[in-house]
Write a structure and sequence with these properties.
This is GH15-like domain-containing protein. It holds the Pfam family Glyco_hydro_15. Residues 15-255 form the GH15-like domain. By secondary structure, this protein is mostly helical. 50% of the residues lie in helices and 4% in strands. It has a single domain, classed as Glycosyltransferase (Alpha/alpha barrel). The strands form 3 sheets. The chain has a two-stranded antiparallel sheet with strand order 1-2. The radius of gyration is 20 Å and the shape is globular. The chain binds beta-D-glucopyranose. Beta-D-glucopyranose (BGC) is lined by residues 29, 36, 41, 43-44, 164-166, 348, 350.
Amino acid sequence: MHRYNDSRLAEHSLALITGLQTPGGAYPASPTFSAYAGYCWFRDGAFIADGVSAAGAAESAERFFDWCAGVLRSRADHIRWIVAETRAGRPPEGAKMLPARYTFAGADGLDEWWDFQLDGYGTWLWALAEHLRRHGADGERWRDAVELTVDYLTASWSRPCYDWWEEHSDHVHVSTLACIAAGLDGVAGAGLLDGGREHDAREASAAIHALVRERGTRDGFLVKWFGSTAVDGSLAAALAPLGCFDPGSALGEKTLDALERQLTVSGGTHRYLGDTFYGGGQWPLLSCFLGLAHLAAGNRDRAVELYEWAAATATDDLDLPEQVAGHLIAPGMRQGWLERWGPVATPLLWSHAMLLRLGAELDTTAPLPATPTREGLPR
Ligand code: BGC
């Protein structure tokens, strides 16, 4: 039977990611793209680790978790200071919080960046917990780094910060909160926390869920940030794979409906209305997130369409880009970005990982072939 992760594109994706991973475990966001070269993001990296873990490359995912743990351990004193100051009612300014991306060696970047983003710290916890569950692995070697992260997040989760797209730092973003809640729940359930921390993690997650329902929805669907009326393509992740909100619930259905109506043209998904980055094109990785959410809600046909759309964005060399220009929100803005940063990031490892992740889910949930009956007709 046809298996998505046996395709040439899936094989290329896995080989590309594992081939570009550094010996220390970092995943380059995009090896050649001017603004990303030399950096590994917690957000991209965690989803990449989850993708390759689901596709069977457990050792690669674990090497990434080792890299995360190294980054956190080397900042343990600084993290403890952030937590103590925050608990004392003096939250440090955004510039003193942990950055979104690091050099492969785990050092802070030298270039200016939109650094204060909390989502990746939740996402690495979530990806680790998923990996341990999926492979029946033991998480002891990451315990201290998990504890540092849990303390950082339980102290800081309610703060406004930059979102997945490194924008709008004055808002509290629903996708960011979903990553944090999923991470805290994940490691609490994985038995990686002592009693006090497990209590704090579960309490913070419950508070996040309640607050999102109160301030992060409108007309029954999840919105981009507290008080917004708009959606964001990243919200599909809150349904699946993060599983923060039930994809089959009324909230899940309405969120999927809003994402389809507002952001998806054929199978291609925009980040948000008003996006101008490279003209505001369609992101294959977002179509894969949307596919995962549809699949979890029981709509396999739509998930397959979204997979096929994302796969069709591959270049002749089978590389997947960050975005494609077939349908642009702000066509006039594209040229300026091409001149500033060069061609769109290609390959983007996160795109490849999301294709693998959706492929793995389609493969493991494939309907069984019809059993022939005695008369020779399928039942
Ligand atoms: C995106 C981020 C991403 C980064 C590296 C940025 O343009 O907005 O979500 O983490 O690229 O891929």
